[in-house]
Amino acid sequence: MNTLEEIIDKRNEQKEKMMDNYSFMMIYTGDLMGDEDEEELMKKMQKLDDGINKLKNDECGCGEHMRLAELRELISEIEEYI
Known about the structure:
Number of helices: 4
Number of strands: 0
Order of helices and strands: HHHH
Strand content: under 5%
Shape: elongated
Structural class: mainly alpha
Mean pLDDT: 80
Distance between the termini: 18 Å
C-alpha cells in the first residue's frame, strides 16, 4: 500500500469484513455497545477515516510519506481485530 487509493481500497475491504459480522455492524451503526476489543476497533476505524480525510485535504502538513506510513500501521492494527 503505497498510495492513498490503495489505502482507501484496503479500508473499504476491512469495512466490508466488519459488516459481515453482525455485532460489529450493530456497534458501527451505534445501535449496540461492544466489548473492549470491538470499541477499540471502532476507534481505530474512525482514526483511519480521519487520517484519510486529512491526507485527501492536505491538512496534515507532515508529508504524504509519513501520513501513508501512519495509515498503513492503522490498517495493520485493524487487521489484527478482523
